[in-house]
Specification:
Blueprint (H helix, E strand, L loop, with lengths): L7 E2 L10 E3 L9 E10 L5 E9 L2 E6 L5 E7 L4 E4 L7 H6 L6 E3 L5 E2 L3 E4 L2 E4 L8 E2 L12 E7 L2 E10 L10 E9 L5 E9 L3 E2 L3 E3 L16 E4 L1 E5 L12 E2 L11 E2 L9 H6 L3 E6 L8 E7 L6 E6 L3 E5 L8 E2 L5 E2 L6 E5 L14 E2 L4 E11 L1
Antiparallel strand pairs: 1-31, 2-7, 3-4, 4-5, 5-6, 6-7, 8-18, 9-12, 10-11, 13-14, 14-15, 15-16, 16-31, 17-30, 19-22, 19-24, 20-21, 20-23, 23-26, 24-25, 25-31, 26-29, 27-28
C-alpha cells in the first residue's frame, strides 16, 4: 500500500531573547515582516541566517541551517513571554552536538530497521546512525543541511518557505527529492507547517518537526508536571532498538493511555517493559482518526503552572511522543540552564517508524508524478 491520497496528490552569532519577558497584549494582532540576520558560518564558509517572525502574539526565530526553530515565544496566562523551545544560542552547538533541537527531519523521520529497505525489488542501504538502525534520515539528514529560505507576507499571515533538494543516493535514499516546507504564523498566532515533496525515482518520505517543548520555558526544569492528552487507543510497541515489532497494542490499562489528560510523570516510572526499554516514553501512538483529508486535533499539552497550552492538529496517522529520555546534562540552552533527562519533550506528527519494512503500516512510498503533502498546525493558549 502506498501513501494515502491526502499524503500523495497526482565561530557563530549570539542568539535569542531572555527566557521570559513581558510585552504587550498576549494576542496582539498584526504580523511583522520577517527580519533576516547573520547567525554564523559553517566550516566551509557557508553563511547561516536567522529569521525573526511575529504574528498573533507568537514570536519565532528560525535558522536556515536545518530549518531549526531556534526559539518560539508565547505568553502565559498573565501575558508574560517565555521561549518554550529548547535549543542553543550558537551555530557550533547545532552542528556538533544537537539532538535534533527544533529541526526539520528528513528524508525519513524516526527509525528504519538496520538502515535497510526494499522497494520495487531493489534493496537500499541507508546511513546507519543509531546503533544498527537509521534515525531521522541518517548521519547527515535534512537537519544538517542549509535550506533556501524565502520570507512572505500574505494577507494577515507571515512566514517562510524553505526549500532543499536531496540528491539521488544522499544518505542511501533513491531519487532526487525536492522538498518544500512552509512555516506560517497566522493572525491568531497558530504555527502551521505545510510539507511538500516530489521525486524523480520511487523513494520513501516521512518529514516531521523535532521541536523540544517545555511550556514553562526552556531550561526551567522537568516536563513531568505537564498534562498531555493523545487521541489514540493504540500504540506501536518496540524491540530493544526502538524498532516497532509490528503489533498495534491497546493503550487501555497501560501507562500509554493518554486518552484523558494526565501528568506525564504519573506513570513514567511504572516499570512497564516498554518504558524500561526506552527509558521513558519514546513511542508512536496510532491516532484514532487515521490519515485524514485535513488536519484534525489529536493532542493537547498543558503546563498548569503557567497556563500555557499547545494543541496539535494533523492529517498524519501517527504521533511520536518522546519524553526527553536521553538528555543527560551535557547540553546548555540559550538561557544558561543545563538540559537534564525529562527537561523537554517532542510531539512529532508522522507516519509510523520503520514503515518501509512493515507492509501492514500505512505506506510512505512516493513515486514520480506524485506530490507528497501533509500539514500540521500548532495552536497556543491560554
Amino acid at each position: 500500500m502506498e501513501l494515502s491520497r491526502r499524503t500523495v496528490i497526482a565561530g557563530a552569532a549570539a542568539a535569542g531573547l531572555a527566557a521570559a519577558t513581558t510585552a504587550g497584549p498576549a494576542h496582539a494582532r498584526g504580523g511583522r515582516k520577517p527580519v533576516k540576520e547573520l547567525f554564523g558560518k559553517l566550516a566551509d564558509g557557508t553563511e547561516v541566517h536567522r529569521w525573526s517572525l511575529e504574528n498573533g502574539g507568537t514570536r519565532m526565530k528560525v535558522l536556515s541551517y536545518g530549518g531549526v526553530v531556534q526559539s518560539l515565544e508565547i505568553p502565559d496566562r498573565r501575558g508574560r513571554y517565555a521561549n518554550v523551545s529548547a535549543g542553543f544560542d550558537n551555530l557550533d552547538d547545532y552542528v556538533a552536538r544537537s539532538p535534533h533541537f527544533g529541526a526539520l527531519i528528513g528524508r525519513y523521520g524516526n527509525r528504519i530497521a538496520k538502515g535497510r529497505f526494499t522497494l520495487d525489488g531493489t534493496t537500499y542501504q541507508l546511513s546507519v546512525n543509531d546503533g544498527e538502525n537509521s534515525l531521522h534520515g541518517g548521519a547527515l539528514g535534512f537537519d544538517y543541511r542549509v535550506w533556501d529560505v524565502e520570507p512572505f507576507t500574505e494577507g494577515s499571515d507571515v512566514g517562510l518557505r524553505l526549500r532543499y533538494t536531496s540528491a539521488d543516493g544522499e544518505m542511501g535514499y533513491p531519487g532526487t527529492l525536492k522538498a518544500k516546507v512552509t512555516y506560517t504564523l497566522t493572525r491568531s498566532g497558530d504555527w502551521r507547517i505545510d510539507y511538500a515533496a516530489t521525486t524523480d525515482k520511487a523513494t520513501v518520505v516521512n518529514l516531521t518537526s523535532h521541536v523540544y517543548w517545555n511550556l514553562a520555558g526552556e531550561g526551567s526544569g522537568t516536563i513531568e508536571d505537564h498534562e498531555l492528552s493523545i487521541a489514540a487507543s493504540r500504540f506501536t510497541p518496540t524491540d530493544a532498538g526502538l524498532i516497532p515489532t509490528g503489533e498495534l497494542a491497546k493503550v487501555a490499562g497501560t501507562p500509554f493511555d493518554f486518552r484523558r489528560a494526565k501528568p506525564i510523570g504519573r506513570d513514567i516510572r511504572a516499570g512497564h517493559p516498554q518504558l524500561v526499554l526506552a527509558k521513558g516514553f519514546d513511542h508512536n501512538w496510532v491516532l484514532d482518526k487515521g490519515v485524514t483529508a485535513r488536519p484534525e486535533h489529536i493532542a493537547t499539552l498543558r503546563d498548569p503552572a503557567s497556563g500555557r497550552t499547545l494543541r496539535i492538529a494533523t492529517d498524519q496517522p501517527g504521533l511520536q511522543f518522546y519524553s526527553g529520555n536521553f538528555l543527560d546534562g551535557t547540553l546548555t540552552g540559550p538561557g544558561g540552564s543545563v538540559y537534564r533527562q525529562g527537561d523537554a519533550l517532542c510531539l512529532e506528527t508522522q507516519h509510523f517508524p520503520d514503515s518501509p519494512n512493515q507492509p501492514s503500516f500505512p505506506s510512505t512510498v512516493l513515486r514520480p508524478g506524485q506530490t507528497y503533502r501533509t500539514t500540521t498546525v500548532h495552536t497556543f493558549g491560554p
